[in-house]
Specification:
The chain has five helices and two strands; from the N terminus they run H-H-H-H-E-E-H. By secondary structure, the chain is mainly alpha-helical.
């Protein structure tokens, strides 16, 4: 069973190493060896990370003579942005309704101490 595209993207970005690779690729294309440099892992391990990013549609690989650069596919972020934006708008609408409700309440609520319950027992 294959996951939907959005799930694959979020799953790929769940790993901090892959998020770091995406951040670096946002600055410039890089080869697998260049991407592997800052990590204490094998080039094969970096290739596996890139395969996950590639399967999610976040990166692509091309061939330029002897060089095989990895490129960030920025349009995939549009899918994530649309999904996040929908929930951001819903949250804003809820906060707006709450602000409206709070604006209708008197300002002095909460400033007076709560009433004390009547004393029970025999008078002295």
């Amino acid at each position: 069973m294959t996951a939907d595209p959005l799930s694959r993207v979020f799953s790929a970005l769940a790993d901090p190493t892959r998020r770091d690779m995406v951040a670096r690729l946002a600055v410039a294309d890089a080869t697998v060896n260049e991407l592997a440099e800052p990590y204490d892992v094998t080039v094969q391990a970096v290739s596996k990370h890139l395969k996950v990013l590639e399967d999610a549609g976040l990166v692509s690989r091309s061939r330029e003579a002897q060089r095989r650069p990895v490129r960030l596919e920025a349009e995939v972020f549009d899918l994530m942005t649309k999904w996040i934006e929908r929930y951001r708008r819903q949250a804003e609408e809820r906060y707006s309704r709450l602000d409206g409700l709070l604006a209708t309440m008197p300002d002095d609520i909460g400033t007076n101490p709560p009433p004390q319950p009547p004393q029970t027992g025999a008078p002295t």
